[in-house]
Amino acid sequence: MKKYFIIYRHLVYLSFSSLLAYRINFFNGIFASILWSSFGLLSTFLLTSRSPQVFGWTRNELLVLASVYNIFFGLFYLFFSRNFAELTRIIHFGQLDGYLLRPIDSQFSLTCWYQGLYQIARIIIGTIFLVYILSLMHIHITVLHVLSFVLFLIFGIIILYSVWFMVLTTTIWFTNLSNLVDFMYSVNLVTKYPQEMYKGFSQYLFIAIFPLTLAIVIPVKQLIEKIILGDIASLMITAILLFIVSRKFWQYALRFYTSASG
After folding, report:
1. Does residue 261 lie in a domain region?
2. pLDDT in tens, 149-177
3. FRET partner for 66 with CA separation of 20 to 30 A, picked from 3, 83, 225, 261?
C-alpha cells in the first residue's frame, strides 16, 4: 500500500502541474462545476416552491440531499470520472496492453491515473450550502457526525465506483459501446432523489438502482438524524460486496481481451 500512496501522490502532482500549464481549461472547469452545483440547488428550490414536502421529505431535507449530491459527485468526478472516460477509449483502440504490462495493478492504473482538481469548487460550494441549511434546521453537528458522514460518503463512492467499473468493463466484449460513459452520467441523476419517489411500476426500477440510491441517501439520513442501524449495514455490506464483485469481474474479463490485433 505504501508504494501506491507514493505513486498516487506523484500522480496528483502531475495533475496539478497540468493545471498550471493549461490554466484556461482549469478556469473553464471551475466555471462548469459552479454552474452544475448551482443548477442542482436551484432545481430543488423549484421542486419545493409550491409544496412543503415531497415524497415525505421537507424542503430543507431535500436541500441537504442536493448539497450532499454536489459533495458526493464532486469527489467522484475529482478522483475517477476522467479515468472512466479514458478507460473506454483505451479498450476501444486496443491500448490496454501497455497498462497490463505496467509493474502496478491494472485496475489502479486505469481508474486512478487522472484527477479533476477543478471539481474542488463543486465540493466547496456543496459544503458551504450544507452547513448553512443544517444551521437553519438547528441541527447540532459534532465531530462524530462529521466523521461518520465522511465514512458513509467513502462507502457510497465505493458503490458508485464499483457500478461504473463493472458496466465499463463490458466494453472488453463490446468495444464499440464507447457511449456507455454518457449513459452512466445519466444514471447518476437517479441519486438526486430519495428512494421514496419510486412507487408502483418504478419499484422494479428502484431494485436495479438500489445500490446507487444508498450511496447518497444514507449519508443524508445520518446528517438529519433519521438513520437506523439497518441503513448503515446495507450501505457497508453493499459497498464491500460490489467492490469485490467488480474486482473479480475485471479479472475475469481480462481473459477475453484480445488487444487491437484481435
Report:
1. no
2. 899 999 999 999 998 999 899 988 887 77
3. 83
Q: Which three cell numbers stand for residue 155?
A: 462507502
Task: Determine contact, residues 203/154, Cβ cutoff 8 Å.
Answer: no
Question: Alpha helix locations (H) across the chain?
Answer: 2-21, 23-47, 59-76, 82-92, 96-100, 106-111, 120-136, 143-169, 180-188, 202-223, 229-253
Q: Which residues pair with 57 in a beta bridge?
A: 54
Whole-model pTM? 0.85
On whether residue 114 sits in a domain, the answer given is: yes
CB atoms under 10 Å from CB of 26, counted, come to 17
pLDDT in tens, 26-64: 777 777 777 777 777 777 777 777 777 766 778 888 888
Cell numbers placing 120 = 474542488
Domain span at 84: 2-256
114 touches 83 (CB < 8 A) = yes
- Decide if 182 is inside a domain: yes
- Looking at the 3D structure of the chain, how many domains does it have? 1
